[in-house]
Write a structure and sequence with these properties.
This protein has 249 residues and is of the alpha/beta class. The protein has 2 domains: 94 residues, FAD/NAD(P)-binding domain (3-Layer(bba) Sandwich); 89 residues, no CATH class. It contains 9 helices and 7 strands, in the order H-E-H-E-E-E-H-H-E-E-H-H-H-H-H-E. A 3-stranded parallel β-sheet has the order 1-2-7, covered by helices on one side. Strand 1, helix 2 and strand 2 form a beta-alpha-beta unit. Helix 2 packs parallel to helix 9. The longest helix has 16 residues. The two termini are 35 Å apart.
């Protein structure tokens, strides 16, 4: 997808008189700022990001040090279907090598066989002699479980018809004891009482991961944690362009 001067000329006069105020310093605002600069031709010093915290990234944060440990509120299951995210990262220079984009850095990192995701212990149970790795090649779903999954994710079910239903109202109790459920809920922090609508959205979003849910082999990794590898390069780029960051507001 081309960027940069695609709209230049058409919006130049209007962009000169535009001030963009982005509330929150999460990746949504950071992405918007990049596109405002590269696609809408808005001067960077007229883009203002207002964040109540002391750093950007929202829930895609990272804090700590080697002595006291690090805190990361969550990770993203990056994969080939993250078209908008990868498009964004193709517009931002890498911190370690400015001649490359963050997307190129990510691609090169994941091209190294030893860096590829391949989990060997997706589930661990309490065995007689201590922790034991469970065999998760089979997801443990009954035919009824499969029918219920298809019914929830299929075209005859909608978010409107689901309404406020909980996940555990859409399945038998035995479903919540399957290896599939334990793998799925630990990946996305689901609980049985959470929204069935949200569960359905995740089924649609990550259905391509079903064949490799036991290893997570479809997940792309970043060289460092996602705050350092994604958020910091975007923040650094935006500050270099002249974007106005206002923290503690």
């Amino acid at each position: 997808m081309p960027h940069g001067n695609i709209h230049q000329g058409q919006h130049t006069e209007r962009s000169k008189n535009t001030n963009a105020y982005l509330v929150g310093g999460g990746i949504a605002s950071l992405a918007a700022a990049v596109h405002l600069i590269q696609d809408a031709d808005i001067p960077a010093n007229q883009i203002h990001i207002i964040e109540s915290g002391s750093s950007p990234g929202g829930s895609m944060d990272g804090a700590g040090d080697s002595e006291n440990g690090y805190v990361l509120r969550g990770g993203r299951m990056l994969n080939f279907s993250y078209l908008c995210t990868y498009d964004l990262l193709s517009m931002v220079p890498s911190l370690t090598n400015p001649s490359k984009t963050v997307k190129q850095e990510l691609d090169e990192f994941n091209a190294v066989p030893s860096n590829k995701t391949h989990a060997h212990a997706r589930l661990v149970s309490k065995g007689e002699s201590g922790p034991e790795i469970l065999n998760v090649e089979s997801m443990g779903l009954s035919w009824k479980d499969r029918e219920d999954l298809l019914a929830l994710a299929g075209p005859f079910q909608t978010e409107k018809t689901l309404g406020a239903k909980r996940i555990d109202e859409c399945f038998d109790k035995s479903f919540l004891q399957t290896k599939f459920w334990y793998m799925w809920d630990t990946m996305f922090a689901f609980e049985p009482w959470h929204s069935a609508v949200e569960f359905r959205r995740y089924l649609h979003r990550f259905i391509q991961e079903f064949p490799r849910i036991n290893t997570l082999a479809g997940v792309d990794r970043t060289p460092y944690n996602q705050y350092d590898s994604v958020i910091q390069p975007i923040e650094t780029y935006l500050k270099a362009q002249g974007v106005d960051f206002r923290y503690g507001k």
